[in-house]
Write a structure and sequence with these properties.
This protein has 13 helices and eleven strands. It has a five-stranded parallel β-sheet, sandwiched between helices. Strands 2-4 form a two-stranded parallel sheet. Strands 6-7 form a two-stranded antiparallel ribbon. Helix 1 crosses helix 2, helix 2 packs across helix 3 and helix 6 crosses helix 7. It is flat, with a radius of gyration of 40 Å. Its cofactor is Mg(2+).
Length: 309
């Protein structure tokens, strides 16, 4: 009897110690209802209820670290989506620096301005290519300004030096333009330069299309990096769509017809007629014929009804 009652109340979730105490007080032949009342009076609760009543312990998360809550996972996914939304950026460092230095000084500050402009937009993949010999001290024939910026960008894994070496006192430099265009083509990114690379367009037809469609030109206005709002011309995409992997197409805007109600082109007219938004664009002659046919058809129906017995 003791074992059967012990098993019964254990299945209900009560602890063995509490059940044994109640059975000792009430006796082994006590009714199940009396044992249950005594357990409740003692304050004993089933283990399932205790686990529900106890709140889950809060986890302390260090400031700046990522928590494992679902909300943080969703935020992380949103961040990855936003970073994947923009195209990779490949900057021709020599072209940008010489443009900022008015073609007289290799101005590293111009490279920093271009990098900051793309960073503010949200681009995560930004690479700047500069010849390796620009690490050398400044000379009169090739002056360099703010050379420490190159070291800072190299530490941030943004600046990449194109290889070069000296053979018998002469510097051997690789054709860095081919090096840069190849990287931009493989990454499906955007080339930031004012050069047209006509020699490379003739080498490879795929590069020809890529350079024509993915070359972003720019200007410096009072130490401000300014690319055009229409990189591919007036009828091309906007700058936002040009730098995005998934461009947003604008809604078509219908231009109203200059002739208005006097237009006689009908359904052949390519302009918008606000006076008939939900009607088929018929010609004026067809509209007049339609209006005349309606009363004639009504009169014939009335005559038929009158002749019927």
């Amino acid at each position: 009897v003791h074992q059967s009652k012990l098993d019964f109340f254990c299945k209900l979730g009560y602890g063995k110690q509490d059940i044994c105490k109640v059975l000792e007080n009430l006796g082994q032949e006590a009714l199940e209802d009396d044992v249950l009342k005594e357990l409740i009076r003692m304050g004993s609760k089933p283990q399932a209820l205790e686990s529900q009543a106890q709140p889950s312990p809060l986890k302390l998360v260090a400031r700046g670290s990522c928590s494992t809550t679902p909300a943080s996972k969703w935020l992380g996914e949103d961040k990855s989506d936003s970073s994947d939304h923009f195209r990779p950026i490949v900057i021709i460092g020599s072209n940008v620096a010489m443009s900022h230095g008015n073609k007289e000084v290799f101005s590293c500050w111009g490279i920093q301005l271009a990098v900051d402009w793309f960073r503010e937009r949200g681009h995560t993949y930004i690479k700047v290519f500069v010849p390796l010999w620009r690490k050398e001290p400044s000379r009169q024939d090739s002056p360099i300004a703010d050379q420490h910026i190159l070291e800072e960008l190299e530490k941030q894994s943004i600046l990449v030096y194109t290889p070069s070496r000296k053979v018998k006192g002469k510097r051997v430099v690789c054709y860095d333009d081919r090096y840069i265009v190849k990287v931009a083509y493989e990454k499906d990114g955007v080339i930031v330069s004012n050069d047209h690379y006509r020699d490379l367009q003739n080498e490879n037809p795929e590069w020809k299309w890529f350079i024509e469609q993915r070359l972003l030109m720019y200007s410096f206005v009072s130490n401000r990096f300014m690319p055009p709002d229409d990189p591919l011309g007036r009828h091309g995409p906007t700058l936002n769509n040009f730098l995005s992997k998934k461009p947003v197409l604008p809604e078509p805007k219908w231009q109203p017809c200059p002739y208005g109600k006097k237009c006689t082109y009908g359904n052949k007219c390519k302009f918008y007629h606000p006076e008939r938004p939900h009607q088929a664009q018929l010609s004026v002659a067809d509209e007049l014929r339609a209006k005349i046919k309606v009363p004639l058809s009504l009169g014939k129906q009335e005559e038929q009804h009158n002749h019927l017995p």
